[in-house]
Every structure is written in C-alpha cells, then in structure tokens.
Amino acid sequence: MDVMPKWAEVVLVPLISLLLAGILSALVILAIGEDPVAAAKLMVTGALGSSYGWGYTLYYATNFMFTGLAVAIAFHARLFNIGGEGQAALGGLGVALACLYIPWPHWSLALIGAAVAAGLFGAAWAAVPAWLQAKRGSHIVITTIMFNFIAASLLNYVLVNLMRPKGAMDPASARFPETVHLPTLHELLAPFGIAFSKSAPANVSLLVAIAACVFLWFLIWRTRLGYEIRSFGQSESAAKYAGMPPYKIIMVSMIISGALAGMMAINNVMGEAERLVLNSVEGAGFIGIAVALMGRSHPFGVFVAAILFGFLYQGGAELALWTSIPRELIVVIQALVILFTGALDNMVRMPLERIFLALGKRGA
Question: For the whole prediction, is pTM greater than 0.85?
Fold first, then answer.
C-alpha cells in the first residue's frame, strides 16, 4: 500500500522541490549583490507578462514537451534514453530533406511529411542503441550518449559538405520554400480576434506537441502495448514470466522515444529557423530528462514541467539582458531546479512519507 496519496506524489513533492530550488536561487542572487525579488518579478514579466514573452516561453516549452515525452516512455520501460540530443538533431536532418526536396503544395501537408521524416530519422537513430541493449547487453546510457556525439559529427559533415548552398559560409542548409513555412500563433489566433505578438516564434507545432502528450497518455495507459511497457519497467522477470518479449518491448519503447525526440525538429528547424543549422537542438535533449523526472513520466506532468522550463529559459534570457546577473548564473538557477526535482527527489519525498505515515496512524 502506498504511504503517500497520489495527489501528494504528483503535486506536493514537485512543488516543495521547486520552492527549495527557488529559495537557494534567491540566496545565490543575493550573494552577488542583486535583489532576488526584483529578479523574480523580471523573470515573470519577461516570460509571462506579454504575448511576446509567452510566445518564447511556449516555443521553448514545445521543444521540451517532445524531448520530455521521449525520455518518459523510455523511463516506463526502465530505459534511460540520454540520446535525445542526437535523435532531435537527426530529426532536423529529416525535416530539412523533406522540406527542401519534396514540392509540398501547402504547409499542412508539409507539416505531416516533415513530422513523419523527423520521427523516422529519430527512431532510426534510437533503434541502434536499443538493438545493442536488447541483443548484446550494451548499456543504453553509454550507447545513447555516445550516439549524440556521432550525430553531431554526422550533421556537421552533411551541412558543410552536402547541404550548404554554394558560396555560403555558415554550416547551414538553404532556406525552406515559403510554402512550407509554418503559421505562428499570431497567424493562428488572428482569425479569432486574439492579438498575439508577430515576432514570437511559437507556432502550430505547439498543437502537435500537445497531441503527442495525449497520444502517449493513451498508449501507456489504454493499450496492451502500454501495459507491457509498464510491466516490463516494473519487473523484467515478472514480464518474462508472463510471456512478454523483452526484445520487442525494448525496441518498440526506444523507437517511439527516438521518434518523439526527432519530431522536436518541426518546431525549431521548420517552425522557427526555417532551415537546418548546426547546434539547432541547443541542449533541449538533456532538458527533456529533467522535464520527464519532474513530470513523473506522466504526459500531463511533462506538459506542465515543459511550460515551467520554458518559463525558466525565457525568464532567464530577460534577466541576462536587463540586469547585471551573468548568463552563467541563469544556468545555475536552472540546474538547481533540475537538482531538486530530479537528483534530490528523495530528500523531499522521504520526510513527506513519514509525515503521511504518522497522520495515517493517528487517524487509525
């Protein structure tokens, strides 16, 4: 029997972890001579106080939803996919090939085609470490993180030697045709009379990310495959005894994980940059690990955690722009949130369990 109720597990533990991270961040800001209250107000105003700020917050959150979901489904199978960075990078290559070499008549068809291409490239990049784990016993953490470096080198070669336009200096592909440009939230909301910033990069891929959250929830909790994935993650030996094939579960879980990570590219490559550039992932694959941990590997939790990290990214950019707080300190604040919501989770959970246990005995 669970000592702690589900609502405390889902809401209270992350909330207290965030509070502790906020207090420690405030002390760090105070130590360098800045006002933590003013810094917090600036972060909130910069990230949530205007449609421009919301546009960037939701843009970052879209990236983190895809990579967070990718990590979450692997977690359910007790697999640690740390290769989201490389899978998203190769997903970008799939998007670029689909947008540059297929004459799409409309952005909606291009979005479907690019999403499929991104998913296939990301899935293929995740399938190799999955096979090595399932057949050879290679540790998934080691292989996926090494594949990040291979993906970066491969993408660098392709951009510099194969896809870079003649006469261009920067390692990037040609710009995508105008027919495949995705509509921004400004363009989507304008017909409904809702004003939104024209310069904000949030686009229709946000809706795809939300649909991916719903899809993963349905897959994990409403299908036989999801039941097998969860059972395997809870007890591999029990799953084997019940006739569930480990090879199939490992491969399918990682392929879906890689596909979700790869689909991040429809937001940053197709929706924002409108071309493939080097380092377009910008660490979102690793942030996805923190998002999945904070969201307890539940799609709704991933959605909320992605919004939070989108807020931290945009709010942190505003702090670095308008105050003397260095950009490196913003990374420290983000790291503290990751630390308390991930690595130090038990530091909050265990005292809470003791409190609820004592309350339960008193009630009995």
Answer: yes
